[in-house]
Write a structure and sequence with these properties.
With 730 residues, this protein is an all-beta fold. Helix content is 0%, strand content 54%. It contains no helices and 66 strands. Strands 21, 22, 24, 25 and 26 form a 5-stranded antiparallel sheet that branches. Strands 7-3-11-9 form a 4-stranded mixed sheet, with no helix packed on it. Strands 6-4-8-10 form a 4-stranded antiparallel sheet, with no helix packed on it. A hairpin with a 6-residue loop joins strand 55 and strand 56. It is globular, with a radius of gyration of 30 Å. The mean pLDDT is 90.
């Protein structure tokens, strides 16, 4: 009774054998599935305390043992996933169906300290017996949690690491199994300010009483356009700072009133939403500074209804269609589709919405961009599946199908972003495609594989993607001494041509400084090595299939590094900063992302000696360039404020042509964005005729949008770095 065309995952189990998955099977199958079951092994043992007494009810977890440090790209079998069992009254535990190979066992029980994981080798079709997992008892931290007046605080959550409990009606809490030594005891409650206290935990009982201060309250009402209260609305207060709690939530009562309790000081955005209404965002920033904030009014409006029909499918296929509408910065909204193809999505706020109809599995898709203007109440848009081109293929590795690989398709001169997963035969298929140039990329997360190729699609096309793999080995050593550098990071990024970064493989060195990549796609790579206390080393390497590469020896020169202080214009430091080191020609030669203290202090541990321009960026601020000498005195960096800039080109809203935006200052200098990881962005692709560039500083900017078909639009805009700005280029 499976629906035709639907994909299912088949799990086959049999006593005495390792369970086996067959994923991505499409009904009906062209020929019977062949599933090979591997004989299982067994593993038995006992959980006990240090005196040899059993620990009944202990939880025992088994998982595949990780590969040795310095290795990447090892295949992980689906049958080796994590499994959990509970020890019996005598502490005994057993895993009846274990895949052969290396596994680790971990045990835990209330009141005990978890031991180090135990690694075992399980033989094929055999049994491992008499495994002993020994748990040591931890200390106890207990006490009373009260308010400033001495009354007990019930329902407060006390936590030390992974050990936590809740205070009872008398305010008493008890934490058992706490590690000995200096640690932080954290206490939280919805109506009180959170508190963390350092405790020097000694063996046995430790009494710690805590007093919580009443928190700041942010309150108001949620109403509709007629001023009537809206009960049951979800109100969210989101922290604008990277530091402190991320947000608070509450629901409005019968009278529309809401109260957000125990709010920390800071700047917040306030949102409200409920069924049948478009989400509302308060126009002003909510400032909390130690005093209650009340009298806020959130007005919910009905918004627009977006409806239409999905065309090009049989009525029996409509149940497998998903229709979604998505807008930048907002979660996708979905609709159900009836047997006639009719869909409806209600309560959409004004803006540009990406409307998408997708057949289950992702191989068929149709999309459009819909502009909803303020005041719109009903908008109609049909989506047609079918009539386009098809691209099908097969993914092979070592002449065998590669199931569960992700195949992504991106248009190079048309706007298209699609993705599917290969079935159990390694097959994939995309339909309803526009003619144009595309990039097909195949990745497999378990095996760390990636491969891409470009193609021109002018008619239906079938392609076989054969993934060839190669091995690259090497050792990272300190210059002069020749000693291996442990825990150095080796980055391998394949060249794709142009400025676009290619797939990135990262591996850490082991204790001897060695590394090996077990499944690297052939090609030319930029190899970058970083180690704390050493200057970055970079080189170009060619990796070929079937040609054993000579092991690399990479020497790292020591560096004194550079201390820096990073703050925003208002004086608040970010949590992280991205620092790109540029040479005199503006070419990036090194990237670091130091974590900053609450005073903005950080340290670049791998920047090479010399004179450099540092491009510094943090989330929520614009980038800036500072001049630095290494070694040298501490560098002070102030990040200018920045705000979002949205650019719309109405002529491109309905167009399928790919286009990109560039920003140029009045002095001719291009605006440079910095993405996480240190990739410098010089242009921003448009989707649906619009694009938003984050954190643009104050200034006058020349805008240029260039489409793949040669059309060009130009304009200008001024930004103040504080408020979001929009520009329309006709």
């Amino acid at each position: 009774d499976l629906a035709r065309g639907r994909r299912v995952n088949v799990l086959v189990t049999h006593e005495g054998y390792v369970p086996s998955w067959v994923e991505g099977v499409e009904a009906p199958t062209a020929k019977p599935l062949v599933v090979v079951l591997e004989p299982a092994s067994r593993l038995r043992g006992r959980v006990e305390d240090v005196s040899g007494e059993p620990v009944p009810g202990a939880s025992v977890r088994m998982r595949p043992a990780p590969p040795p440090p310095g290795t990447v790209g090892v295949k992980v079998r689906r049958s080796e996933n994590t499994a959990d069992v509970e020890a019996g009254h005598d502490g005994a535990f057993a895993f009846a169906e274990v895949a052969p190979g290396a596994v680790t066992l971990e045990a835990s029980a209330e009141g005990f300290l978890p031991p180090e994981p135990v690694e075992l080798q399980v033989p094929p079709n055999g049994e491992v017996q008499d495994v002993r997992l020994v748990l040591g008892r931890g200390a106890v931290v207990s006490g009373w949690i009260t308010a400033p007046g001495g009354e007990p605080v019930a329902g407060a959550r006390a936590r030390v690491g992974a050990v936590q409990s809740e205070s009872d009606a008398e305010g008493r809490y008890r934490l058992a199994g706490v590690p000995r030594g200096l640690t932080g005891l954290a206490v939280s409650h919805p109506a009180y300010k959170g508190k963390t206290q350092q405790v020097d935990v000694q063996p046995g009982e430790n009494r710690v009483d805590l007093t919580l201060e009443k928190g700041t309250t942010v309150a108001g009402r949620v109403v509709d356009e007629a001023g009537e209260p809206r009960p049951g609305a979800e109100v969210t207060l989101r922290n604008r700072s990277e530091r402190g709690p991320r947000g608070y939530r509450a629901s409005s009562g019968a009278d529309g009133r809401f109260e957000l309790l125990a709010v920390a000081d800071g700047s917040f955005d306030l949102e409200a939403e409920t069924g049948g209404f478009a989400p509302a965002v308060h126009p002003s920033v909510i400032e909390v500074a130690g005093r209650d904030v009340d009298g806020i009014e959130m007005v919910l409006r009905r918004g627009a209804i977006l409806s239409g029909r999905v065309l090009g499918l049989d009525p029996g296929q409509m149940a497998a269609v998903e229709v979604t509408a998505e807008r930048a910065g907002r979660p996708a909204r979905s609709a159900t589709v009836d047997h006639t193809g009719r869909y409806e999505i209600a309560a959409l706020e004004a803006g540009d919405w990406h409307l998408r109809a997708r057949l289950a599995g992702g191989r068929r898709e149709a999309d459009a961009w819909v502009a909803i203007a303020p005041g719109d109440r009903e908008v109609e848009r049909d989506l047609k599946l079918g009539g386009g081109l098809a691209l099908g293929g097969l993914v092979l590795i070592e002449d065998r199908p590669l199931p569960r690989s992700h195949v992504s398709l991106r248009g190079l001169d048309v706007t298209a972003e699609r993705g599917v997963t290969t079935d159990h035969q390694g097959a994939f298929r995309f339909e309803d495609l526009e003619p144009g140039r595309y990039r097909v990329e195949v990745t497999h997360s378990e095996r760390m594989l990636s491969q891409s190729e470009d193609l021109e699609l002018t008619e239906d096309h079938e392609v076989v993607i054969e993934i060839a793999t190669a091995v690259l080995t090497g050792t990272v050593v300190a210059a002069g001494s020749g000693e291996g550098v442990a825990e150095a990071l080796v980055y391998l990024q394949r060249f794709l041509g142009g400025d676009e970064p290619g797939p990135l493989t990262t591996v850490g060195t082991n204790a001897a400084g060695s590394f090996v990549t077990a499944s690297l796609a052939p090609g030319r790579y930029r190899l970058t090595v970083r180690g704390d206390g050493y200057a970055q080393e970079e080189r170009i390497v060619d990796v070929e299939v079937g040609v054993p590469a000579e092991p690399l020896t990479i020497e790292l020169d020591p560096t004194e590094g550079l201390a820096l202080t990073v703050r925003r214009t208002a004086g608040e430091p970010p949590v992280w900063a991205t620092v790109v080191v540029l040479d005199e020609g503006g070419r990036p030669v090194h990237v670091e992302e130091p974590r900053l203290s609450d005073r903005g202090l950080g340290f670049l541990q791998q920047v090479p000696p010399g004179r450099w321009n540092l491009l510094v960026k943090a989330a929520g601020s614009a980038s800036t360039i500072a001049r630095a000498t290494v070694p040298g005195k501490r560098l002070e960096v102030t990040l200018p404020s920045g705000a979002a800039l949205t650019v719309r080109v109405p002529a491109l809203i309905e167009s399928r042509a790919a286009a990109a935006l560039t920003l140029t200052a009045v002095d001719g200098a291009p605006y440079l964005g910095v993405n996480p990881g240190g990739f410098i962005q010089r242009s921003w692709p448009l989707a649906g005729g619009a694009v938003t560039v984050a954190d643009v500083p104050a200034g006058a900017w020349r805008l240029q949008v260039t489409a793949a078909d040669g059309r060009v639009w130009s304009g200008s805009v001024s930004t103040n770095g504080e408020a979001a700005t929009s520009a329309v280029i006709e």
